[in-house]
Design a protein that fits this description.
The protein is of the alpha/beta class and 291 residues long. The protein has a domain at 3-163 and 190-215 and 260-274: NAD(P)-binding Rossmann-like Domain (Rossmann fold), CATH 3.40.50.720. The chain is 36% helix and 24% strand. An 8-stranded mixed beta sheet has the order 3-4-2-1-5-6-8-13, sandwiched between helices. Helix 1 packs across helix 6 (192-204). The protein is globular and about 55 Å long.
Length: 291
């Protein structure tokens, strides 16, 4: 049995699925997390763990000592008001620790709009939103520590995440979907289980200072995915709207960027084969097992 003492700075769906994966592989896990809730001992999938309050402005100072004791850190706290909160609050602690594995979860939104063309890790980054600009700034800062201090850091740029619980089928089922008329708008996705599996592979195959795109094999227009989901659920009619008529500003911003994200570097380095290589396998699995 292998041992891991890990601090998840942020404990959302990716971190939870990653911990599930580690547990399933019979690791002995010491887990610490942050969330907005009060500091307390909690239980996750049978594992007792310590959660520390961190709401962006205030945090339980006891987590500072814990950060000096762990050997793995997963950073999934998003930027807030243009700042990376982990860098702002805890960087000096992390820099002087004995951590041997740090993964910063970024997003493929840092590439911005490439008019539907393919992008890889060497492509130009030209973010179109404040949050993506902040992510890119944080990436550069984390990577600068690799150069200055031989810091054990890797960056995972995640595409649009879907899961067995949060997906187009669930939204279609509850009538929360409209078909948006946007020609040649390409977007990449990845199932959260594949993210977890790749994170797990990186525990034993780690190269500091690298950036990897985490996206499945089939970038596709949102309309294509929606219509496939509707077919699985035998839904015949979905309201169509124009981008200009979208009321949700975050969703409207989504349609500013069009690109296909290349995953070759990640697949070759980790020798990884997807559980859900495209949205077809992912949605079929969800339809057959959860809907």
């Amino acid at each position: 049995m292998k041992n891991i003492n890990i601090f998840c700075l942020g404990f959302g769906q990716v971190a939870k699925n990653f911990i599930n994966k580690i547990i399933s592989e019979n690791y002995s896990v010491i887990l610490s997390t942050t969330s907005r809730s009060e500091t307390s001992e909690k239980i996750f999938n049978g594992l007792k763990y310590q959660n520390y309050k961190f709401n962006g402005k205030k945090f339980d100072e006891r987590l500072i000592q814990k950060l000096t004791e762990v050997d793995h850190v997963l950073v999934s706290v998003p930027p807030n008001e243009g700042e990376d909160l982990i860098i702002k609050k805890f960087l000096s602690i992390i820099k002087n620790s004995n951590i041997k594995w740090i993964t910063y979860l970024s997003a493929t939104s840092v590439y911005g709009d490439h008019k539907g063309s393919w992008v890889d890790e060497s492509s130009e980054t030209k973010p179109t939103s404040d949050s993506s600009n902040a992510r890119l700034k944080a990436e550069k800062y984390w990577l600068s520590l690799k150069k200055k201090k031989n810091f054990p850091i890797q960056i995972f740029r995640l595409s649009g995440i879907y899961s067995n619980e949060n997906n187009i089928l669930t939204r279609l089922k509850f009538g929360d979907v409209k078909l948006v008329n946007q020609k040649d708008h390409y977007f990449s996705r990845i199932h959260v289980e594949d993210i977890s599996n790749i994170l797990f592979e990186s525990l034993t195959k780690f190269k500091s200072g690298e950036i990897y795109n985490l996206s499945d094999d089939k970038p596709a227009p949102s309309m294509e995915v929606t219509l496939y989901g509707a077919k699985l659920l035998n839904i015949k009619h979905i309201e169509r709207i124009e981008v200009k008529d979208i009321k949700n500003e975050m969703l409207k911003n989504f349609y500013k960027d069009s690109k296909k994200v290349n995953n070759k570097k990640m697949k070759e380095f980790f020798n990884y084969s997807f559980k859900f290589p495209t949205y077809v396998e992912g949605l079929n699995h969800i339809r057959n097992n959860f809907i």
